[in-house]
Amino acid sequence: MGDFVLTLSCPDRVGIVHAVAAYLHRAGCNVLDSQQFGDRITGQFFMRVHVAALPPQPATYRSLHSGFAPIAAEFAMDWELHDTAVQPRVLILVSKAGHCLNDLLYRRAAESLRIEVPLVVGNHPDLAPLAAAHGVPFEHVPSGSDPLSRQQAEGRLLDLVSELSIDFVVLARYMRILSPELCAKLAGRVINIHHSFLPSFKGSRPYHQAHAHGVKLIGATAHYVTADLDEGPIIEQEVARVDHTTARMIWPRSAVTPSARRLPVRCAGTPSTAFCCTGVARSSSGKARDAISARPLSFARRGEMTCGRAFFAH
C-alpha cells in the first residue's frame, strides 16, 4: 500500500471535486487529506489530495497517473502526482556559516526532513569537517569574483546536478550570487535561505541594515531563486522580535537559527506539513521533475494557503 499526493490547478467550474473524488474512489484509494480553494480573482481552482492505495490490488503510481490523464484533459488541469515514498535528492551549497547546513543534515539524519543529500558543495573549504561529521561528502568548488572563475564554478555545479541526479538545490548561507544564466538553467529548482524578512533588507549584511533602521522584527525567508536578487517567490518565513538591547551580532543566532530549523522542513515537505508531499513529481506528460518546484510557474500554484490564496507546496 502506497501513499500519493495529487496537486492540480485549472479554470474553476462546477464538477471538479466530484470528478477527482469519483476517480480516486474507482481507483481504490482512500482520501487521507483533501484541501481546495477557488480563487475568485483569477478564476483558478486549486486542489491537493493525499490518498492511500488500498488492498487487495493497490493502485500504483503508473496506474493512477495514466488513469487520471483523461480527467485532467477534460478540465484543462495543470497537475502533478507525487509518490511520498520517493525522497528528493538535494544538493546543498554553503560558504562559511554552518548553522543552516548543520540543521539540515541533523534533521535529515533524524528523518524529520525526508531528503537525500548526496553532496555538500562549498565555495570555501571551511565546512568540510561538518559535512564529514554527518557522513556526507563535501566538494570545494571555489568561485572567485572574476567572470572566468564564476563560469567555471557554475559549470561544475551544473555537472554535479546532472551526475548526481539532483532534484533541487538549497543555498544554505551560500554567499555567492548565481548568474542569470545559471538561474535560467535551474529555474524553479533552487531554494535560498535568506537571513532577513524579505522583501526588506535584500542582499548582503541584512542584519546590519535592519539594525541601522531600528526594526523590531527580524526574520528569515525561504524563497525560490531567480535572476533578481532575493526577489524570487516566497515559500515560507519566520520572525523574531528584537529591541535596542539586542546586540547586532547575535541577531543571526536569534532569528536565522530557529528559522532555519523550520523553513527547510516546510519547504522540502514533511508528512507533518499539511500542504507538503515529499517525493519526485512527474508532470502530466510523465516527465520526472523535482518535488519542490517543478518549473517556474506563478507561486500561486505551489506555495501554501495564505491570506485567502491557495498556494500548494508539494
Q: Helices and strands in order, then pairings?
A:
Elements: E1 3-11, H1 16-26, E2 29-39, E3 44-53, H2 61-74, E4 78-83, E5 89-94, H3 99-109, E6 116-122, H4 128-133, E7 138-140, H5 147-163, E8 168-172, H6 180-185, E9 190-194, H7 206-213, E10 217-224, E11 234-241, H8 251-268, E12 281-282, E13 288-289
Parallel strand pairs: 5-6, 5-8, 6-7, 8-9
Antiparallel strand pairs: 1-3, 1-4, 2-3, 4-12, 9-10, 10-11, 12-13
Describe the structure concisely:
By secondary structure, the protein is an alpha/beta fold. It is built from 8 helices and 13 strands. The longest helix has 18 residues, at 251-268.
Output the CATH topology of the largest domain: Rossmann fold
Which overall shape is indicated by the principal axes computed on the Cα atoms? Answer: globular
Secondary-structure-derived class? alpha/beta
Largest sheet report: 7 strands, mixed
Distance between the termini: 20 Å
Strand order of the largest sheet: 7-6-5-8-9-10-11
Written description of the protein model:
With 314 residues, this protein is α/β, with parallel strands linked by helices. The chain folds into 2 domains: 3-84 and 271-301, Alpha-Beta Plaits, CATH 3.30.70.260; 89-268, 3-Layer(aba) Sandwich (Rossmann fold), CATH 3.40.50.170. The chain contains 8 helices and 13 strands. Strands 7-6-5-8-9-10-11 form a 7-stranded mixed sheet. The protein has a 6-stranded antiparallel sheet with strand order 2-3-1-4-12-13, with helices on one face. Strand 2 (29-39) and strand 3 form a beta hairpin. Helix 1 runs antiparallel to helix 2 (61-74) and helix 3 (99-109) runs parallel beside helix 8.
